[in-house]
Amino acid sequence: MDVPFITASQTQDGSISGTYNARSDNLERFWKSQFGFTHGLIIADTFYENVTRDDGTSQVVQFSPRTGEPMLIACLWSRRNGPDEELLSFAAITDEPEPEVAAVGHDRTIINIKPKHVQRWLNTDPRNLPALYEILDDRQHPYYEHRLAA
């Protein structure tokens, strides 16, 4: 399996292009061209989420596993040809929030797969989607510490 190396890139207005979240309850509908076909991993030690404050403004919160171990974030990737250039994009797969993430006010958490599932996740069989859901369900559940991002 040849998985391309994709990095998030900033557009001229400062936003990130080509990066998304893929809800685990919508993989076979919205992500049907990728789920079971083009899987990847994001290896990270932290992730960020926007949380709405009591006054309605948004605050970026940083979440990191208390263990300090890197996360193996399940993702889907896509390659599309645009009018001017090729776009490589990816989507981190998310699910219902871990309790400590929900307590801060966010409604989703990335899926952090177990190391023993990496090869099966990357070498997918689109004819066996139940096996892929088993990988997503048998995930790591570290306690995510949080702090306000600068």
From TrEMBL:
Biological process (GO) annotations held by this record are:
protein-DNA covalent cross-linking repair
Concerning Pfam families, the annotation shows:
SRAP
Gene3D superfamilies from the xrefs? SOS response associated peptidase-like (3.90.1680.10)
Alphabetized GO MF terms: single-stranded DNA binding
Instruction: Look up the domain of life of the source.
Output: Bacteria
Question: Which InterPro entries does the protein's record reference?
Answer: SRAP, SRAP-like
Q: What is this protein called?
A: SOS response-associated peptidase family protein
Species in which this protein is naturally found: Stenotrophomonas maltophilia (Pseudomonas maltophilia)
Q: What is the lineage of its organism?
A: Bacteria, Pseudomonadati, Pseudomonadota, Gammaproteobacteria, Lysobacterales
